[in-house]
Design brief:
It contains 19 helices and 21 strands. Helix 4 packs across helix 8. The chain is of the alpha+beta class. The protein folds into 3 domains: 112 residues, DNA ligase, ATP-dependent, N-terminal domain (DNA ligase i, domain 1), CATH 1.10.3260.10; 192 residues, DNA ligase/mRNA capping enzyme (D-amino Acid Aminotransferase, Chain A, domain 1), CATH 3.30.470; 127 residues, Nucleic acid-binding proteins (OB fold (Dihydrolipoamide Acetyltransferase, E2P), Beta Barrel), CATH 2.40.50. The chain is 39% helix and 23% strand. The structure holds adenosine monophosphate. The site of adenosine monophosphate has 12 residues, from strand 1 and strand 2.
């Protein structure tokens, strides 16, 4: 069994050294010593998850449960908790202090282990229905009763999904490589194909990385598009043919089908199959065994409906009932595995041909695309896509492989306006007039390394129902209440459009967005995927040149 104390001590040592090399070495030495079960658990936690991607269970222990249990154990008041949180800026550190003040200490303290702790969390994730929330709180309480302060700090950080030790994905992969004397490139590739560092670490230990491939029902990260700077860009450096594909405004999904099982995964790699029961039959008919990539849109007659309509489908408990009110169409644009063969390394032309040969029917359709050779045809395709009610185009290199998790020049998106940013809400304020009772004005930030920097504030351009939902959400996720203004947990991502980026002393980023307008809530994006300060700086420089 692997002691939780040792896990915590390793993470703490890793967080204290500024040297990336040393972080990797420390972690590698630790991972190498772990037995297989503990290795899996540690690797999953290191990636900021409690359960591996694609797991049907979800551990719903949120901030409010964490704070409640910590208060119960320590007797701390709301005010004390909020002061501690603001002092440290981190719930893990606050937890360490609160646990040190525990009112009762168990007579027999059993040392926490990774394996046993994980078994408890797994049980908590599996419970459903009435009493589930109480059960989860009880599991958490039992763990925190046993934990030493340093153990509590990292337990809480695991549960909030952010370890804060300065180890990004690339370095984690390096640590796994170093631990088991594998090539970093081989670890990286395996990790992109299966998106599960725990599995990759076990493969590395057994020397089986070379055999890694996509796997059914193990979602992997999507290939993403860069931004098209101007329509001539794809043809620069020798004329080539590119695929001009409609850019649908919906949510991205990955389909895995094998045997009689069909699963849809969202961009955050969550299983969203149950929200779309009407897609099951047509997806079964498409082919007996495949993994495909596409965009799911709300549909109204002959045209896509606004993106917001889809939200109703994703949140509903009774999907069949809303299925009639909000029909959807799934447009597939890529095929990545068929039966036992991975297609990711084949050029797009070939993948597209294979995709076209599948048995499309009903609400599952082939994405609209055509090859173009010059700027004029590309502009035409853009117009045509807009007339079909789509956002614009994704311009794809026909010779390009599928690169999971990559954003780059192989795919370029073209939509109007060219620049929007995905920002994280950090504060919410009550509106005026008919919005007086609603938290409708949002202060938002972009990422700067591990920190968030405020770049502006916008009155909501959202629909009333969305504002009502956000109000309820922010009230539950307030970290500091100033009455009219609430500092909130950084959880909600908004897409904002704006007229310009200006220099400003008002915000700690040094920049402000001019006339920001909220385009929509990006429920499909996590704060880790929000835009960065570098992007804001680049836009600022671009407009000065332009
Ligand atoms: P954005 O979310 O604005 O950064 O644009 C990228 C997103 O466009 C992707 O993550 C997809 O969800 C979506 N998308 C829509 N149509 C396509 C397409 N034909 N190819 C690739 N991505 C697409």
């Amino acid at each position: 069994m692997a002691r939780w104390a040792e896990f915590a001590a390793t993470l703490d040592a890793v967080s204290r050294t500024p040297s990336k090399r040393e972080k990797v070495t420390l972690l590698a030495a630790y991972l190498r010593r772990l037995p297989e079960d503990a290795l899996r658990v540690a690797c999953t936690y290191l990636t900021g998850r409690v359960l591996p991607p694609g797991d049907p269970d979800k551990l719903q222990i949120g901030w409010s449960t964490l704070v409640e249990v910590l208060q119960e154990l320590s007797g701390a008041t709301d005010r004390e908790v909020s002061e501690l949180y603001l002092r440290w800026g981190d719930l893990g550190d606050a937890a360490a202090e609160l646990v040190a003040r525990r009112r009762t200490v168990p007579l027999f303290r059993e040392p926490l282990t990774l394996e046993a702790t994980h078994a408890q969390l797994r049980r908590a994730a599996a419970v459903r229905g009435k009493g589930a929330a109480e059960f989860r709180a009880a599991v958490l309480r039992a763990l925190l009763e046993q934990a030493q302060p340093m153990e509590a700090k990292y337990l809480v950080r695991v549960l909030t999904g952010d370890l804060r030790i300065g180890l990004k994905e690339g370095l984690l992969q390096e640590a796994v490589a170093e631990a088991f004397s594998a090539r970093p490139a081989a670890v990286r590739r395996a990790d992109l194909l299966c998106s599960d560092l725990a599995e990759v670490a076990c493969q590395a230990r057994r020397g089986e990385l070379a055999a890694s491939s996509l796997r059914y029902f193990r979602p992997f990260r999507f290939m993403l598009a860069g931004t098209l700077a101007d329509p001539a860009e794809p043809f620069r450096g020798g004329s080539q043919e590119v695929l001009a594909e409609d850019k649908y405004d919906g949510v991205r999904v990955q389909v895995h089908r094998l045997g009689d099982r069909v699963t849809l995964y969202s961009r955050t790699l969550d299983d969203v199959t149950d929200s779309f029961p009407e897609l099951r039959q047509p997806l079964l008919q498409l082919g007996p065994a495949y993994i495909a990539d596409g965009e799911l849109v709300a549909w109204a007659g002959q045209q896509p409906a606004p993106f917001q309509r889809l939200q109703q489908r994703l949140r509903r408990l009774d999907p069949l009932e809303v299925a009639e009110q909000v029909p959807v169409v799934l447009f597939l644009f890529d095929l990545l595995r068929v039966e036992g063969q991975d297609l990711v390394d084949l050029p797009l032309v070939e993948r597209r041909q294979r995709l076209e040969s599948l048995g499309f029917s009903g609400p599952v359709r082939l994405a609209n695309a055509r090859p173009v050779r010059d700027v004029a045809s590309l502009r035409e395709a853009f117009q045509a896509a807009r007339e079909r009610g789509n956002e614009g185009l994704v311009v794809k290199r026909l010779d390009a492989p599928y690169r999971p998790g990559r954003r780059g020049g192989l795919w370029l998106k073209w939509k109007e306006p060219l620049a929007t940013l995905d920002v994280v809400v950090v504060g919410a304020e009550y509106g005026h007039g008919k919005r007086a009772g609603w938290l409708s004005d949002y202060t938002f930030a972009v990422r700067d390394g591990d920190r968030l920097r405020v770049v502006g504030k916008a009155y909501s351009g959202l629909q009333d129902a969305e504002i009502a939902q956000l109000t309820e959400f922010f009230l539950r996720h307030t970290v500091r209440d100033f009455g009219h203004f609430k500092a909130v947990e950084p959880k909600v991502v908004l897409e904002v459009a704006f007229d310009a980026v200006t220099r400003s002393d008002r915000h700690d980023s040094g920049y402000a967005l001019r006339f920001p307008r909220i385009v929509r809530v990006r429920a499909d994006k996590t704060p880790q995927e929000a835009s960065t300060l570098e992007e804001v700086e680049a836009l600022y420089r671009q407009q000065r040149q332009g």
